[in-house]
Design a protein that fits this description.
- This protein has helices spanning 2-24, 29-51, 58-84, 87-94, 97-109, 115-132, 139-162, 168-190, 199-223, 229-236, 238-250, 256-273, 275-293.
- With 295 residues, it is mostly helical.
- The chain has one domain (2-293).
- Helix 1 (2-24) packs antiparallel against helix 9 and helix 6 (115-132) packs antiparallel against helix 12 (256-273).
- The longest helix has 27 residues, at 58-84.
């Protein structure tokens, strides 16, 4: 069940690459993020208010606020990067956090790193270099998304530490409120906060606020009570895949051979980062082959 829920999260995140890119083209970036997390906070607050009567909300809220700082930095750099690069390119560079997660787990959680993971890091770096050379996306845009990937990896690793100790609802709400405060402050300082107009912006706000924020982070907090950081990151590897698919289908992205080659190298690194992912991939290929062989 946690696995299925996380896969649904990756589908939502994948399609929002397109929506966010369209929305921030006509509405200020940090104002968009402020309203997005305002919607996410409001969606979770009534449930948290009821749950708070049982106590134990303070620790979860504090831990959620710490995670929220990482999320705020990740979304700011990722969304800013989307302005200067392609949807598919941003999606695959974001996928580098799948490789970074085991490395941070070694540093923060003292997890042992397999030799295959070091090879995965080299492949991911090569893929990023190839993807950065795609004409449709700028190096500055891809670099911003790379910073986002590092922050996402830190968030996933720290969530493994906090999720078993605190209520998932308060962790998720702490993340939402912290992001809200950060982005409102920035938007006000820039003078960008205003009432959005049009379905392009409002549609993106509702989808990202309710599904890609409130639902997604609540699911992650709940799932990581049962799954490790590395397993979670491997499931999240589906996000850049969906981002690429939706980028091509909905946004008209064209990466070319170099871009797709970089994506393929990154995905190879993602698979090598965790042996379980390779076994799952081999099992999927085997099942497909058996199905096609049936008369």
């Amino acid at each position: 069940m946690p696995l299925v829920a996380l896969v649904l999260v990756t589908v939502v995140w994948g399609v929002t690459f397109v929506q966010v890119k369209d929305a921030v083209a006509i509405y200020p970036l940090f104002a968009f993020l402020a309203l997005r997390f305002a919607i996410g906070s409001l969606a979770l607050f009534p449930f948290a208010l009821t749950r708070s009567r049982r106590g134990s909300w303070k620790g979860g809220s504090v831990a959620g606020a710490l995670l929220g700082l990482l999320v705020a930095g990740a979304y700011a750099s990722q969304t800013a990067g989307l302005v200067h690069t392609t949807v598919s390119g941003a999606g695959f560079v974001t996928g580098l956090y799948v490789v970074m997660t085991p490395l941070l787990a070694l540093v923060l959680l003292r997890r042992r790193i397999e030799p295959a993971t070091w090879l995965a890091v080299v492949l991911a770096a090569l893929g990023f270099a190839m993807l950065s050379g795609v004409p449709q996306g700028s190096r500055s845009g891809n670099a911003l998304v790379l910073v986002s990937a590092l922050l996402w990896a830190a968030q996933i690793v720290l969530m493994e530490r906090y999720a078993p100790r605190f209520d998932p609802l308060f962790l998720a709400l702490g993340e939402m409120v912290t992001c809200l405060v950060c982005f409102v402050a920035i938007a006000l300082a820039l003078g960008d906060l205003s009432v959005p107009r049009g379905w392009v912006v409002w549609g993106a706000l509702l989808v990202t606020g309710l599904l890609a924020s409130a639902f997604a982070f609540l699911v992650q907090s709940w799932a990581q009570q049962r799954m490790s950081a590395v397993r979670t990151a491997i499931v999240f590897a589906l996000e850049p895949v969906f981002a690429a698919v939706f980028g091509v289908l909905l946004a008209g992205d064209r990466l070319g051979w170099l871009g797709w080659g970089g994506c393929a190298v990154i995905m190879a690194g993602i698979v090598l980062a965790e042996p379980a992912a390779a076994r799952a991939l081999r099992g999927l290929v085997l099942r497909v082959s058996v199905t096609e062989a049936k008369p």
